[in-house]
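Methods, example record. To illustrate the input and output format used throughout this study, we show the complete record for Universal stress protein. The sequence lines were provided to the predictor; the line carrying structure tokens was produced by it.
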Amino acid sequence: MSIVRPVIVGVDGSPPALDAAVWAVKEALSRAVPLRLIYAVDPDDNGVDHENSARALATAELAIRQAYTAVEATEQPVEIELEVVQDKPIPALIAASQHTPLLCVGASGFTRAGRGGIGSVASAVVRSAHCPVAVVATPGRGRRILVEFDGRPSASAALQTGVDEARLRGAPLSVMTTWQHRHRELYEKNVAEERDRLAQSQLDRRMARYRKRYPDLDLELITDHDSTIDHLSANPDTVQLVVVGAERFGARADGEVIDPDGLTALVDAGCSLLTCDRQQRL
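The corresponding predicted structure is encoded as:
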């Protein structure tokens, strides 16, 4: 008997958390699994007396009920589960990520991270969760799904995830090659050119297969920008979701984050972010 793993949304009573809960409805329905709304009560907020504990639990109940109401308002036939856990938000959500196909959080609303527009909880779970993570921004005017195809091992999984999201949401799909800039930084010219050629050949084959398999999918290839941020800056309000590979915001062997500023920059561009499955590889 297979274990049903719900799509999980971390909620905290903020408007971005409500956006994340609503965004996740289609994800749960597409997988035929429940949607679980989780609120983490920080033990430090409970204090030492009964009054503080009661207040913390009342806040949790209000927040989770607001999210429940927002999901119900979609009038979609999704099964909703509610859970309140006694833990700090980051460890609570990372622990929950071991038991879900997708973890969703609002782009902000939890404790905000310094100068950027992304919350510290969202930033932490993107880098440490055991599953794909969606960081959901407030819905804007953008329609397109944008896949960042960077030539890393999980690029193919990111492409498949982008195709799935475009079909799920009835959106056009753009695939942007970003490996050229990275190859120029890492390799000598002749090696970089060979890696460019191999990556392009791989992508061309996959694009051809998707066009044949899904003739109704609006699919385009973008090769005229060095980075995703450059493209978003040049084309504001056109993208609703950026899909990136699992390694994009990981850490090197020495523990340093590969791209410490990229996550904030993507979310600040006003679109949601989705990382692909860390277990998928070429």
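Annotations derived from this record:
Residues 25 and 75 are 10 Å apart (CA to CA).
The chain has two domains: 7-136, 144-275.
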